[in-house]
Design brief:
single chain, about 325 residues, alpha/beta, Rossmann fold, Dihydrodipicolinate Reductase, domain 2, 2 domains, six-stranded parallel beta sheet, globular, binds NADP nicotinamide-adenine-dinucleotide phosphate
Length: about 325
């Protein structure tokens, strides 16, 4: 059984990874919880036992087999190679390593075979929009060949971690009681009663950093470096779960019924039927590991096109569950 370290254990994703290891009966010989000096000494419980959070240091990785890391990218850039050098395999949630050609970027339902080669002993967990998107695109691609993908997102506050949620909650309390909404602390504007299209850094090409991540990572996960993809990312006043409006143009004919059949069989997907009054909503996806898909309809403006709507819990399938699923695959291969 592996010796495990959870890095960023006090954050929104790290906290959930701790819960998921128990939920999924992940085998553990020993476990340690690491975070910044600010959190050193805090108590967390795991399988009925109390553990003290330790400050992150290179020596902390001695004897560790699997690291599940969820820190800012700068911290991962410094510490993931140190953990790898100490002999651990790192599953990293930050964006630090995702586009490194020597680091597999993995969604187990889509490209688990990429785990065959891990030259840096680091595996990257993709962006929380790209994960559910590729879970849905992969079976559709096998059916009719992707030609172009256009996405608009409706992303929840928790995408900005524990600080985002606290910011949203403070704004919500003030708004609900008629007090002035406090200035944003984590989001880049007022989120309550509003939507924010620039909640991320703007890159030189006019896209946000988040939009560029979704484009580049979708291509890498699907191993389609030339795929035409364009994305608009938007933050909406929702606590948990990201929604995506997805328009797909295909190379070959595809009917709504064919798409429904293939998605109904695909792993990790819950297909909902609007004809029965079912439409995926963030409240359905919160706390679940599947991607919820619905509103599948023809795009009548092109020869072979579909529109669909998907929702997934950004903290679970978009981050923690996908990381734990990767770690489970690593154990199967060990
Ligand atoms: N939230 C999402 O939906 C989501 C989805 C996919 C990927 N991610 C990525 O996952 C990572 C974590 O996100 P999150 O939402 O969990 O963020 P978060 O709630 O802000 O948590 C960040 C964690 O990193 C730790 N940390 C910060 N600075 C550190 C340092 N200098 N040394 C050691 N530990 C440090 C924090 O420890 P302290 O508590 O001690 O500060 C905390 O445990 C980020 O890279 C994020 O982009 C997030």
């Amino acid at each position: 059984m592996p010796h495990v370290a959870i890095v960023g254990a006090t954050g929104a994703v790290g906290d959930l990874i701790r819960q998921l290891l128990s939920e999924r009966n992940f085998p553990v010989d020993s476990i340690k919880f690491l975070a910044s000096d600010r959190s050193a000494g805090k108590e967390v419980s795991f399988r009925g036992e109390k553990h003290r959070v330790q400050p992150i240091r290179a020596e902390a990785f001695d004897g560790v087999d699997i690291v599940l890391s969820s820190t800012p990218s700068s911290v991962s850039r410094e510490f993931s190679p140190l953990a790898a050098r100490a002999g651990a395999t790192v599953v990293d949630n930050s964006s630090a390593w995702r586009m490194d050609p020597e680091v597999p970027l993995v969604v187990p339902e889509v490209n688990a075979d990429a785990l065959r080669s891990i030259p840096k002993r680091i595996v990257a967990n993709p962006n929380c929009v790209a994960i559910p998107l590729t879970v849905v695109l992969k079976p559709l691609h096998e059916l009719a060949g992707l030609k172009r993908v256009v996405v608009a997102t409706y992303q929840s506050s928790s995408g900005k971690g524990a600080k985002g949620l606290l910011d949203f909650q403070n704004q919500l309390l003030a708004y609900a009681s008629g007090r002035p909404v406090p200035p944003p602390q984590a989001h880049r504007g007022q989120l309550v009663g509003n939507v924010i299209t620039l909640d991320w850094t703007l890159d030189p090409n006019g896209y946000t950093e988040e939009e560029n991540k979704v484009i580049n990572e979708t291509r890498k996960i699907l191993a389609m470096p030339e795929l035409a993809v364009t994305v608009t990312c938007v933050r909406v006043p929702v606590r948990v779960s990201h929604s995506e409006a997805v328009n797909v143009e295909f190379a070959r004919p595809i009917s709504v019924e064919q798409a429904r059949d293939v998605l109904a069989q695909a792993p990790g997907i819950v297909l909902m039927d609007e004809r029965k009054g079912e439409v995926p909503q963030p409240i359905h996806a919160e706390g679940r590991d599947e991607v919820f898909v619905g509103r599948i309809r023809r795009d009548e403006s092109v020869a072979h096109g579909l529109n669909l709507w998907l929702v997934a819990d950004n903290l679970r399938k978009g981050a923690a569950s996908n990381a734990v699923q990767i770690a489970e695959r690593l154990l199967e291969r060990a």
